[in-house]
Write a structure and sequence with these properties.
There is one protein chain. This protein is mainly beta and 264 residues long. The protein has a single domain, classed as outer membrane lipoprotein receptor (LolB), chain A (Clam), CATH 2.50.20. Helix content is 5%, strand content 36%. Strands 1-8-9-10-11-12-2-3-4-5-6-7-13 form a 13-stranded mixed sheet.
Length: 264
Amino acid sequence: MLRALAVLLFMAASASAGQIVKCPFIWPRQYAVDIAQSTTHPGLTNAIAGLINKTPPVMVHYHVDGYKLRTELIAPSGSPQPVAIYRVEDLVLYNLRPAQKIYYEVPLLPGAIKTFDPFTTSGAWQSEGLEIINGIECNKYEVHYVTPVNTMVKFFVWLTKDNTRPVRWMEPDRNRISMIDFTNFTPGPVDQKLFMPPDDYKKMPLPPRPNVITSVAPRPVLPGTPPPASVTPPETPKPAPPATTTNAPPLIAPAAIPVPAVKK
């Protein structure tokens, strides 16, 4: 009730100025896109215009087919990086290490992941006119969304002028600005081989602790914070006990997945 009231109040205020619009973009069920996520700490500058202390962006190839997701980290050096494959309907995460040609199979909790879409298309969308982003003329939108815990979230989205491709997503707050740039957005079928470990990869045992994923990455991806992806299982692991529903972080972290996902 409070969520609906908050959105209605914002829509009423915006509508009076004639700026409220229906969300012009919907994520397809199947698509691929390259994303670059960065975090900026604006310091004393304007929280939106003054982007300083910018951290190097995390570059990722991103492939989605409904409740299947594959992320491939892109290293500037071109060296092999971890790959994470999520199969939510099978309640499994495959954590691939291409350099060693090995993988780990990690259980997922039912209901832990709601969507892999980088940003929600729900909420109240307000048109902010045209703006040039990375040399592309874009429609800019301010979006207000009420989360399931009744927190109002504000973020900005830039779409191509025909509203068919995302160009940028940004969420500012007092201490930092989270931003994602999108390139090579390709809607349509994704090769299903991308959602399974290669045949020549060896499956490795899990560490001797429950390894249940309840969430995958810090916002603006999915709630929760995994440990670094450099943890290596012991050479002679003990049998893992049955999976539990604890909120303990996984010992084998998935590859960093810089994709915002506000639960719809």
